[in-house]
Amino acid sequence: MLWDPAVPEADHQDDDDDIPEGTGVDLRVAVRRLKARNTAPGPDGLPGKAWVLASEALGPRLEGLLSAFLERGQFPLRWKTGKLVLIRKPGRPADSPSAYRPVVLLDEVGKLFERVIANRLAEHLAGTGPDLAEHQFGFRKRRSTVDAIMRVRALTTGDAVARGGGCLGGVSRHRQRLQLHALELH
Questions:
Q1: Alpha helices in the chain (DSSP H)
Q2: What distances in angstroms separate CA 37 from CA 19, 28, 30, 50, 135, one per listed residue?
Q3: Are the C-beta atoms of 43 and 65 separated by less than 8 Å?
Q4: How far is CA 106 from CA 78, 83, 85, 111, in A?
Q5: What does pTM read for this prediction?
Q6: Which of 18-22, 60-64, 74-78, 94-98 has the lowest mean pLDDT?
Q7: Is 69 helix (H, G, I), strand (E, B) or coil?
Q8: Are 78 and 107 in contact (CB under 8 A)?
Q9: What CA–CA distances, in Å, run from 16 to 58, 68, 165?
Q10: Are 155 and 167 in contact (CB under 8 A)?
Q11: Over the stretch 37-61, which tens digit does the pLDDT of each residue have?
């Protein structure tokens, strides 16, 4: 059994904002990301490939389940319970704790739900706002760590440096966001 239908109601105040039901699009986007990965299964033993294959038949029921959890403001604890696996690092002595990298395997259905939530948050922030800062790279579609590194590189090797000046960089926190600042020095 993947969930307990007798989960008690979430203890939260209702507000005027309705949470839209889960849609086939939400689920298809999340399942599409599973197709691209070949990950080990979590405690339930179901690999991502099984969810991909079953998504056609289970789609409507899973959408209903995820919608119910969204409406109730719940994330099943079972989906956040992982299986700890220690992976040995090459070239390290087996009796050393630093010779192992801990990895926690989570149930794929929980990962699907996380993707649905993350996609909804990103869409809300981009559409309704407040939008994310232009130079924020995390939690943004089509932006990556590589993009952030390229921006820092451009700031430190750009026109100011080419003219014999320099670049002073700093990181600050403003309204719960970390921001990168650059100042040309002449």
A1: 24-35, 48-72, 108-127, 145-157, 159-162
A2: 29, 15, 12, 12, 29
A3: no
A4: 9, 7, 11, 7
A5: 0.65
A6: 18-22
A7: helix
A8: yes
A9: 31, 17, 54
A10: yes
A11: 777 889 999 888 888 888 888 888 8
